Amino acid sequence: MPQTNTISYLQAQSKDGSDPGLPPPPPPSEKITIGDQFLHTISEPVIAAFCAGGVAGAVSRTVVSPLERLKILFQVQSAGRDAYKLSVGKALAQMWREEGWRGFMRGNGTNCIRIVPYSAVQFGSYNFYKRHFFERHPGDSLTPLSRLTCGGIAGITSVTFTYPLDIVRTRLSIQSASFAELGERPKKLPGMWQTLIAMYKSEGGIRALYRGIVPTVAGVAPYVCGLG
Description:
This protein is an all-alpha fold. Helix content is 66%, strand content 0%.
């Protein structure tokens, strides 16, 4: 190649050294990492509400676990069954003396296992129903009737998914209490799965696990409608 042609060729080259006779190289594509995909997924409104509701439910139930168990013990008292017919402070002190910190947390593991999917399904299903069935366009505000209906359906959905664990949590809360008819407490109390299986086998199958669901649903639906 003559010298003049060589100089002209070099001058014609672009500043980054690419050959002007060839198409420009494609821009470097950004690599999407697994972490980026995960953050994008959990930032979706329904999934974010699902996760936030589960974590918030577990934390709140753990904080108030002693009071939750004491509430159940108060509710099952009747004539001749008054072991916990005390003030709240004295009843909590009795629970501590008899069972220690385990008594305060009795049934809380099951309650957290229940409340995580319960809160998650409640928040997630509410947002799902709202976005896909009740909003006329994204960001649309619901009427009071639409909010009531959407919240009611979300409440029914969450209760239906988790009600068996609610019954098991109640059983676990009672079985170590100092009620006379329970007799002497065994050294090793049955856990969540043992109680669940025993109820299913000896108390009527799936019906036993959903005993009392109708009044529960009737009470939950109006409460959940306030989420909107």
